[in-house]
Every structure is written in C-alpha cells, then in structure tokens.
Amino acid sequence: MLLRKYEMPWRRPSELLAGTAWMTAAAAFVYMTPDGMPVKLGLCSAAAAVLMAAIRMRQGLHIVKVRAALSGRAMEMISTSTLATYIQQDDRLFLGFGFEWTPVHSQRLYELSKIDYKDYLISPLLQKVLGYAIGRSYVIQPQPDAEIGLPILHGVSPVEKPLYRPLQNFEGGTVIVGTTQAGKGVMLGNLLTQAIKRGDVVIILDPKNSKRLKRIVMRACHDYRDPDTFLWFHPAFPEKSARIDFTFNWQKPTEIASRLESILPPDTAGAFTAFAWSAVNVVCQGMVTLERRPNLMKLMRYIEGGIEPILEACLRRHYQTLFGTGWRSRPDMAHLLDKSSRGLIKAPSPSASADLLAFVAYYELLLPEAQHDKVIDSQIGVFRHNREHYQKITANLLPILSMLTSGDLGKSLSPNPFDPDDERPIMNFEKIERGGHVLLMCLDSLPDPSVASAIGALALADLAARSGMRYNLGGYRRITLAADEVSNVINQPLIEILNKGAEGGIYSIVAMQTISDLVNRLGSQDAARMALGNLNNLIAFRSKDQPTQEFICETFGKTGIHSMKVGRNTASDGHLSDFTSVTSQQVTEELDDAIPPSMLGKLPNLQYFASVSGGRLIKGRCTLLDPGPENAEEAA
Description:
Layout: H1 2-5, H2 14-32, H3 39-68, E1 77-78, H4 80-86, E2 92-100, H5 103-112, H6 124-134, H7 152-155, E3 161-166, E4 174-177, H8 184-198, E5 201-206, H9 211-224, E6 230-233, E7 243-244, H10 254-261, H11 271-289, H12 296-305, H13 308-323, H14 331-341, H15 354-365, H16 374-384, H17 387-393, H18 398-405, H19 407-413, E8 426-427, H20 429-435, E9 438-442, H21 449-473, E10 479-483, H22 492-500, E11 506-512, H23 515-522, H24 525-532, E12 537-540, H25 546-556, E13 558-572, E14 579-593, H26 597-600, E15 607-612, E16 616-621, E17 624-625, H27 631-635
C-alpha cells in the first residue's frame, strides 16, 4: 500500500521510451500482417501494443507535466476590468491563483530539497510543444532568474486555478504575514478592492502611507462606488484631509476616558494609568453635566490648566437648580462671597476665583449631604488635590494629549463645526458607516512614530466602542477593517475587535512582518500569541524570522512524509557459480511539517501559503493590480 502512495516525479521520463517502443511494435505488427501473419493475430497484437503505448505515454507525459511546472510562474499584472471577471459573486472571496496543498505536494517538496531542481527543468521550447500537444493551460511563463525566491514552491503542481473561499469563512479575522516587499500590500489591495465592490464600509489604517494602496483604493471607489465616498486622512497634509472626531460617539462619558487610557504607555502598577483615567473622566462628566460635548482640545485645556472653570460652572448650575435664580442673595452664600472677596478663604489653586472659593466652601460646609452631587464631589476632589502631585501623576497623559492637539492636527482631531473658514468635511465613525464611506488613514509613522501610534490606537478605541453600540443596537452595515503594520497600532481595543468584532459586523484584516514586532509592542510572547489566537485565517508570504516561521508551520500542521530506502547485497561462498544477491526496498512514513520552515524564507514575491476555512491549506500567488496612471491621485 505504501509503495502505491510513493511517487518520484523528479527523474527522467523513461516511460516515454517504453511508449515509443510499444508504438514501434504496433507499427511492426501492422506492417507484418499482410506478409503472412494472421490478420486477427496481427491486429490484436497491434491493438495491445497501442494500448500499452498509450498507458506508458500517459505516465511519461505526467512526469513531463510535473517537471514542466518547476520553472515557476512569473509575476503578473492584471487590470481592474480583468479582476472584475473573477469577483462577480459577492458571497465568496478571490485569493488569486493556485491550488490546494495536499500531502502529495508536501512529498514532492521534500524530495526536491534533496536534489538540484535545475537538473530537471524543462526547456521553454519543450514547454510550448507540450502546451500545443496536451493543452494551453500547461504553457507557463517561467519565473525569471532575477526574481527573488525558488520557483519550485509553486511548481510542485502542474496546474493552477482561481482560488475562492466562501466569504463567511473570513468572519473570524485574517492575518497576513511577510517580510517587507514580499506581497502583503498587493494582497491587501486585492482584498480591499473586493470589499469596496461588495459595498462594505472600509476603514484602512496605513502607518507608512503607501501611495500604491491609495491609488488602488481610489480606483476601486471610482469603478464600483461614487468617488465621493473616498475619504483620506493624513497628519502631514491637514489641508487635504478629512477632519475626524474620535470622541463624538459614546453612550456613557466613561467611554471617552477609556479610549484615552488605551493609548497611554503601560505602567507596572497601573496607578498612573488609573489616575489618568480618573482625571479624564472627571472632566468629561463635568462637561456632560454642562451639556458641552467633550473633545481632545477641551480635555487638554481643563486637565492641563485646571478643573476650576468646569467646577465653577457646575456649582452655579447646581445652586440654581436647588435654590432658584436668587441663590446668590441667600444670607449664608452672600456672607461667604464677601469673605472670599476679602481673601479670607484659602485658595488651593492660584487660578481659583473668589466666587469659586465661596461656592466650594458653601458646598462643603453648609450644603446638606443629601443635596450633594457625585460629579461635583469628584471635581472638588481634583480641585483640593495638591497641584504638583496632580501634575506628576498625570505626566503620562499630558504628552499624549499634547501630541494630538498641537497645531493643525488639533483642528483635524477636534473639529470646530462653527468655523466658517474650514470647509473640510467633519466625520466620525457613525457618519462614515451611515454614508458607506471608504476611509484611508495614513498615519505617517516614519517621521513621527509616536503621533502615528497614538492616532491609530485612538481610532481603534473609538471603533471598538462603535462595535459595542452596533452589537447592542443591531441592524448594522458590514465594516471591513484593515490595519497594515499592525504592530504600530495594536492595543487592547483592537484585540477586543478581533475577539468580538464579528458579532458587531466588523471583519478584520491585519498585516505584520514578524511576531517579534507584536511581542515588542504588547510586552510578552504570551500577549502576542493571545492576539494572534483571535485570527482564524493566516496568509503567509516570505518570512525570514525564525519564530515567525515556527508559528506559521505550527498553524499549517503536519503531514505524513514517505522515505524510500533501497538496499543491495551480494555474497559468494568462494565458488565461481555460487553467489547470492538481495535487493530490498523499504518505504517508511513519519509525521513532519506540511511546509518545511526553511521554505518560507524562499517564497518568491507575491506567492504565499495560506491556512483558511478551519485548516484548509492552499498555495497561491497574487497578481499585481494596475491602479491606473500615477497622476490620478493628484487629479482627485
């Protein structure tokens, strides 16, 4: 049984010689039949010879076909109109061209690793002859020697076909892994083009500002949507960017504090992060009480400058609610106001007005406990806090807020709808969803990685909150979230999106280079593994990092690999005619990686291995998508 499973195509096609011999024999039988051989015997012998020739030629051609594919496939560029012929059905995803990887392909690859594959390549002329003889599908445009990678990785199968998988298989999230320039961006562009055609709301986080990706997305919007649905955000080009308010959508004021907490650098004990959350929450609660909408610039103003303006406004409203319009004329309040105006009440803050000191004294000393308000209690706690200590424990918050509110970026992230001189659109994730927009956020991480990381993390925190709203309310539109170089922006909200986002209609695609990048960002190998564990599908391009290779091969699993051992033994007892000869063949099977880890570092550009649909393993290649002329971007 094992011998039947064992296959060795990397050899000379000796079956073709046998087939030629059988054809010669058939011709001889036909030739000899009129010269004395019985007709029936001659024709039957010729027919048998032709049958054997057909069997042997078929076996030999199979070897030739398999060897013909060893030259690989050259990179290919297709137009958007050609791509449209492959993505006509919105309920399935087009993954390029390739084949399903089986144990047969693993066996062939392991056998190839033992030999010099160049000795078994088929000449281009013979490939053309083969194509005309048995079908044009076998005519291959070989991979040029100048291209990166081994052609045999795609050449273990002589035939490829368009690869499709049901769209629902990708609800669990997809991770694209590969070193730089290996093909991650090309795959991302193809997947996003299909998402735009399906009518998804598309949100893209691109830390490095890929011009090619922008052109592909704009081309897809032009082909399948209204071009006005495309939105672009870039911190370095605020005059061309949309304005986005990441604090616009919330159900509880505490959500805003949680979003800002998610972009803070972690501290060991968590005390500074917890106090930063409390400081933001106190300001947000006060602004909501005053019916003012929080944004980043307002939060920065009140956290850095002090809580006094909000506290004074909240106390005025509270007293008017309790005592009516004449509350300042009450004897006890008038006495405290007079005392404060003469400087007889000690001020914990130099920015506190005389009225505020009197209002706080009345609240703490004369107002019954039953008439206190929890929001005001929290604000007075901040007001009474030592100012120097307060600044120390909010030291990790203020730099982040300063980065997000400085210069033109502050106007982009904290838009003023009443500014008549700023005509840029003001967006938020709810508005983007309702309008069916495609948002490309270029974070500009190369010149300013800290700001890029903060913007990306804040956007993900807002989107996670929006996902929770969608989950609670239902009736949502599908969102495709794509994060390139995910190690630059990953945070706890993104992990929550990966874990639970599908329930809220958010389907994620993330791209990264190595696991080590995630470990560096999240702090530990376990945290990185936990994040990756929320992604059901893996698409692996060329990877040189050993831990990443091990993770990929671990995901791909193992398969049975056959090995043949041939033994020959002769012996003689001294007499010339007395000797023995033994020839043995032994085929053994053992479990090994379905894809050898070393081969992951030898993949050509745009070629990948993928584990999709719960363990289905495929070998594929992407095609470059023509994004149109380079001046299309400037024209838009």
